[in-house]
Amino acid sequence: MKKNKRPSKTAMNSRLISRPIRRCFAVFMLPTFAAFCIGFIWPFFQGMYLSFCKFTLPQDAVFVGFENYTKALSDLGFRHAFVYTAGFSIISILAINVFSFIIAYLLTQNIAGSNIFRTVFFMPNLIGGIVLGYIWSMIFDGILKRYGTYLLAETKYGFWGLVILMCWQQIGYMMIVYIAGLQSIGEDMLEAAKIDGATKLQTLVKVIIPNVMSSITICVFLTLTNSFKLFDQNLALTEGMPVAVQADGSMINTTEMLALNIFKTFYASANSRGVAQAKAVMFFILVAVLAMAQLKFTREKEVQS
């Protein structure tokens, strides 16, 4: 007769530890859940309600229906900010992901000093957006001064200045994500492609890129949301300037993005806070829909292991 093996001390300790945790699960979760409700859930639904109200303070809110949304959609500056943000996002998403993937690919080819290069490329991500905006504004003005102009003289300078700043800050972070994806590819797959006579370009397109689609999904999601939500860099670098006068006499800030437009609308006057809240709700819906659509599209391309 075989004797039943006694459970190991590790298994017994694990059960002894897990039992009180399971029993007191609600107690452990309650502080975090309460903080989440107070800090996110309640402000979110209150903001949704206030977008249908005219208010100075939340306690003084008066329901006005869709009036705030009508005013927001008829705001020429808001519509221009949407188009400007969309154009900026498309270019920055492409540039950041292409350059970060190329750098990550090069740094996984066993070149000398690759760890130093990774650190150097990642460092700009540690600097705050406000600081970066002021630093780069001085850099751009110093360069453009040689040509008799300055950053805020024309809209195109501010646009490309924001693109360069965003790329410089974000490429290093996305590079780390791509490096993790590239390092997860098995050597046997690369060896098999080499034995089959595939060139480096064919290996890159047919083997490497399909196997790093999960990293591409993450990086595109982050660059998409970060580009649309860009605020502090926009505020520090251009503050929406220069101003353009329209045919009807109205003025718009030509380099103003959506987040900055909402910010300025909220603090423009006490009567405009409901309009700013309506813009914020539409902004949230826009970013959420685009992000979910992007996640669905890129996840379908991922290689299933």
Characterization of the model:
- The chain has helices at residues 9-23, 25-50, 67-74, 76-107, 114-122, 129-144, 155-183, 187-195, 200-211, 213-228, 232-237, 258-268, 273-299; strands at residues 53-54, 62-63, 243-245, 251-253.
- The protein is mainly alpha-helical and 305 residues long.
- The strands form two sheets. The chain has a two-stranded antiparallel ribbon. It has a two-stranded antiparallel ribbon with strand order 3-4.
- The longest helix is centred in the N-terminal third of the chain and has 32 residues, at 76-107.
- The two termini are 44 Å apart.
- The mean pLDDT is 88.
Summarize the structure.
With 305 residues, the chain is mostly helical. It contains 13 helices and four strands.
Key structural traits:
single chain; 305 residues; two-stranded antiparallel sheet; 13 helices; 4 strands
- Based on CA atoms alone, the radius of gyration comes out at 26 Å
**Largest beta-sheet details:** 2 strands, antiparallel
Helicity level: over 70%
In order across it, which strands form the biggest sheet? 1-2
Blueprint of the fold:
Elements: H1 9-23, H2 25-50, E1 53-54, E2 62-63, H3 67-74, H4 76-107, H5 114-122, H6 129-144, H7 155-183, H8 187-195, H9 200-211, H10 213-228, H11 232-237, E3 243-245, E4 251-253, H12 258-268, H13 273-299
Antiparallel strand pairs: 1-2, 3-4
